[in-house]
Design goal:
about 50% helix; alpha/beta; 10 helices; single chain
Length: about 280
Amino acid sequence: MSSRISTILILGATRGIGEALARRFHAMGKKVIITGRERDEDKMQLLADAMPGLEFRVWDLTDLHLLQSHVTSILQKWPDLDTVFLNAAIQSHYNIFTSPAPPSPSAMLAELNTNLVAPILVAQAFAPHLLGRAKEGRATTLFITTSSLAYFPVPFYPGYCAAKAGLASFVKILRMQARALELGMGERRERDEEAEKVGGMRIIEVVPPYVDTAPNAEHRAQTDALQGGEEKAVQPMGLGEYVDGFFEGLEEEEEEIAVGFAKKGVEVWKRGFGELMRCSGME
C-alpha cells in the first residue's frame, strides 16, 4: 500500500510517533510535509535540514478559526497532495475526584480540540480534495490516528480516552459514507467506472498501543503507581518496534492498522459492534 503514497502531509510530526513516521516515509522517497505548533518551528527546521526535500508548516490545530485557511493554503502550494495523516495529539493525566486535579477548562478544551474536534474538521476539509483526486484515477489515502484507549478506556486519561473513542467512531462513519457514495454511484452500469475511482480513496484508522514516547514519559511514574508499581504496570512498546509494526500493517491493506495490544481492541469491536452493524445494513 505504500506504493500509492507519493506526497504525504503529516499533522503532528515534531516528536514521537509522528517524527518517526516522517523519517521513515522520507527514507522511502516520499515527498513529506509536516506541521507543528509555533514553539516547534526550530525543531521542524532541524528536521528539514536533516531530511532534504522535507517541508514544514506552522499550524496550531487548536486555532480552529484558522483551520480552513491552512487547508486552502496547503492545497494551493501542494496541489498533488495524495495522502493526509492526522497524528497530532495531547494527553492529560488527572483524577476527577482526587489528585492530580483536572486541568483548567481552557486546558481541557485544548485537549478535546486537538484530539477530537480538529481531526474531524481537518478530515472533512481535506476529504473533497482526496475524493476529487480519486475520481481522477489517482490513489489517495486519509490516515486518522486514534488509540488503543479508544477501545480500552483507562482511568488515568479521562479526556483523552473519551476524545479518541469519539474519533474512532468518526473514522468508521466517514468510511461508511464514502462506501455508500461508491456503491450508490455504481447502481447504474454506465457509472461503474466512476464508482471504482471513488473507491480509490482509502480511509485508514491508525490504532497505536501504549508506545514509549515523550508525552507518555511525562507522567509514566504516576500511571505506574496507579497500577501497583512499575513491576505490575503495563510497559510501553518501543517506538522503533511500533513503527516497524505500522509499516508491516500498511502493506496488508486493511482498514485499520493496529499494532500489538491495540489489535485486540479492534478485533473485539469488529466481532461485536461490527457484526451488529452488518446485520443492521449500515456497515
